[in-house]
Amino acid sequence: MNLVQQLINGIVLGHGYALIAVGWTVLLGVARLVNFGHGQIYMLAAFVTWWAVAGLGLPYPVAILAAMLAGVLIGLLMQAAMLRLTFAQDLVSIMIVTLGFGHMMRGIAGLVFGGHPQVLETPLSYIDFEIAGAWVTAQDLAVVLVGIAAFALLHFGLERGTLGRTARMVAEDPKLAQLAGIDVKRVYFAVFAFEGAAVALAAAMVAPRTPILTSIGFEEVIVTFVVVVLGGIGSVAGSYAAGLGLGIFTALFGGFVSPAYATTAAFGVLIVVLVLRPSGLAMRAGGR
Amino acid sequence: MSTPILEARELRVTYGGHVALDIPHLALAPGELVGVVGANGAGKSTLVNALLGWSRGAPAVSGSVRLAGEEIGALPPHARVARGLALVPEGGAVFMRLSVAENLAAATPPAGAAGRAHDEAQIEALFPRLRERRHHMASALSGGERQMLAIARALRLGPSALLLDEPSIGLAPRLVTDVLRAVRGLVDQHLSVLLVEQNVRAAIAVVDRLILLERGRILAQGPVAAMRDDPRILEAYLGEAAA
Ligand SMILES: Nc1ncnc2c1ncn2[C@@H]1O[C@H](COP(=O)(O)OP(=O)(O)OP(=O)(O)O)[C@@H](O)[C@H]1O
Ligand SMILES: [Mg+2]
């Protein structure tokens, strides 16, 4: 196997991972919430994209927007159901409710989209480039660019300005934020809408690389865990770096050692890092 | 008498089955400073929190709360803040991970309150310490400085009525006087304040009226001149035998 090719695969994979995890970064970092239906929103959004392109004949960019809209609606629906739990910061119940939502989504997807694997073909998958003897498709390039754009926007949105300050206030003390005049409920809805939209965007970008089945989504949740935890919970830059690092690690391990054990190895790395540096890899002033 | 700026009727708060507060009527006149005193667990915090519809716990609150005549008793806390009611909760709550400047900027005056809101210059004139510490994280402030920051943040919201829950707690005796004097000064500029205070002696020096709470009920209330000599106040809080 060619090293440059594996590195490029890793970079593409890593941006995909980071993109998949971006919603959770905000969810956990801003609102101290979790969503174990994350993987199934990914799965549903992949199907919606496929259906919009293959079934309705819509252009790919419109299909991406349709998937994101579906993600937003699912996110809002989930948060509406859990609002009381959210206010009570009852993480265990939230975990169980979101897991339940995930299973329901899988059932619904089975009913609507059937059990056959589908392949999403986008116009970008047919365009190839050669870089230093390695091949990339325009779809790969788009994953990288969208990943960078999503993280840059989020970084600037959250690190400065009113939005970021509001987010940090709600993250630190939602009750106190109410006294500063913040409608915390709206923030929670916005965060879940973002989570839905972000994972749907990731699905629409990344899913064309693999067959789409109702059973996908589990691996995406695992990847999200690793990225968010390694990155230092809630750190935008940390998640980006962790996603990229995990992608490159997986590609190199898969290319030169064994693809079958790449995920296992990634978990090994996660455990080692957590034992040595419980707050994740990211260094942060006043860190958490 | 003019319309009270803040008025509560049949205000009841229960935790589980336990009645923590039961107040048939309470009013705060415009430009008035009313002190609320009572033993630990008397329901002082429960009272000011209930007026804002806010709590760290999950109490059941019922009753009517009016702000300048408008019923706000069913509104969520942020909506009451938007209408001009502000609360500085027990323990001088500030955002530890935000700087002093950010804590102040975090409280944006709601539309309509802009005229009443303290601007940065006024805040700094009131609490010069905060200017020196502008760029520090709130977690690096002393307890007293945090208390000042919490009050300053509430003033940034431009409230027409302010609820203060033990602003002097943890402060050096001199600072207690300073903070309470500052509160008095605000009231003289027509802010209306309900002040919960453990330090009865210090409270008596600044308030217009005093309310004595016991087990969630109003045991006595009246102008400070009369309450000062009330035997229940004298014995329990000023450590003097009733004359
Ligand atoms: N979260 C809660 N859950 C259950 N009971 C509570 C809760 N908060 C307060 N109480 C009860 O309500 C009553 C009034 O409490 P509150 O905090 O209002 O007293 P306080 O007068 O402010 O006392 P302190 O001077 O100690 O601040 C007490 O009996 C207290 O035990
Ligand atoms: Mg109290």
Automatic annotation (TrEMBL), chain A:
Cellular component GO terms, alphabetical: plasma membrane
Compartments reported by the entry: Cell membrane
Keywords: Amino-acid transport, Cell membrane, Membrane, Transmembrane, Transmembrane helix, Transport
Name this protein carries in UniProt: Branched-chain amino acid ABC transporter permease
GO function term, MF aspect, one: transmembrane transporter activity
GO biological process: one example: amino acid transport
Family affiliation: Belongs to the binding-protein-dependent transport system permease family. LivHM subfamily.
UniProt topology in membrane: Multi-pass membrane protein
InterPro entries in the record: ABC_transp_permease, BCAA_transport_permease
From TrEMBL, chain B:
GO BP annotations listed: L-amino acid transport
CDD domains per the UniProt record, alphabetical: ABC_TM1139_LivF_branched
One matching Pfam family: ABC_tran
Membrane is among the record's keywords: no
Transmembrane annotation, as ranges: none
InterPro entries according to UniProt: AAA+_ATPase, ABC_transporter-like_ATP-bd, ABC_transporter-like_CS, BCAA_Transport_ATP-bd_LivF, P-loop_NTPase
Keywords, ordered alphabetically: Amino-acid transport, ATP-binding, Nucleotide-binding, Transport
Database matches in SUPFAM superfamilies: P-loop containing nucleoside triphosphate hydrolases (SSF52540)
GO molecular function, one term: ATP binding
Segments forming domain ABC transporter: 6-240
Family statement drawn from the similarity comment of this UniProt entry: Belongs to the ABC transporter superfamily.
Record's protein name: ABC transporter ATP-binding protein
Organism annotation: Teichococcus oryzae
Lineage: Bacteria, Pseudomonadati, Pseudomonadota, Alphaproteobacteria, Acetobacterales
